[in-house]
Write a structure and sequence with these properties.
The protein is an all-alpha fold and 175 residues long. Helices cover 71% and strands 0% of the residues. It contains 10 helices and no strands. The protein has helices at residues 2-18, 32-45, 50-58, 61-65, 69-76, 78-86, 95-106, 111-130, 138-152, 160-174. The chain starts with a helix and ends with a helix. Bound molecules: zinc ion. Zinc ion binds at residues 35, 59-60, 120.
Length: 175
């Protein structure tokens, strides 16, 4: 138990430090750590193991703030680093190719990776409800909701608690 708490506390600290200058794209420019905390909290509520919860805090470090896979292995071990890598988009691809890759890769996700992907989508849909990125209109929002569903519907395993949250947020956005 003590070990788990220390691990999550280290992940929080690491994520807060690495993302310190990173903001969401909404008008309020919400600090990025809010999204990470939301994803981790969703995973904890859904009954995921401690490494998945820690990966919730760390899931955007390789993609968005140039932390390397090797750095994550050194700090948090192979399992957490692999979890983060599994939800990292390949930045060499164009935006649309990255989006397509998420759809194509969804069906190969393990249960733990599927939970991470689903929690990330839930948090992003909640962000769209609270305040969409600057310049996004209804069409842009609808496009994102549609794309997220393409990914989620291909996940081989869908955590029930997270799925409940997902359908709630999706319903609110489409309603
Ligand atoms: Zn994310």
């Amino acid at each position: 138990m003590g070990e788990s708490i220390r691990l999550v506390a280290r992940a929080v600290e690491f994520a807060a430090r690495e993302h310190r200058r990173h903001r969401r794209k909404d008008v309020a420019e919400t600090p990025y750590i809010n999204h990470l905390a939301h994803v981790a909290h969703l995973l904890a509520e859904a009954g995921c193991d401690v490494n998945v919860v820690a990966a919730g805090y760390l899931h955007d470090t390789i993609e968005d703030v140039d932390v390397t896979f090797e750095q994550l292995v050194a700090e948090f071990g192979e399992d957490i680093a692999e979890l983060v890598r599994s939800v990292t988009d390949d930045k060499r691809l164009h935006w649309w190719a990255r989006k397509q890759a998420q759809i194509d890769e969804a069906e190969h996700a393990t249960a733990r990776v599927a939970a991470l992907k689903l929690a990330d989508k839930v948090s992003n849909l909640c962000s769209l409800l609270e305040g969409p990125p600057k310049g996004w209109d209804e069409r842009e929002i609808a496009r994102y909701v549609h794309w997220a569903h393409e990914v989620v519907s291909r996940l081989p395993e869908r955590n029930e608690v997270l799925m409940g949250r997902y359908l709630e947020a999706r319903g609110a956005l489409l309603g």
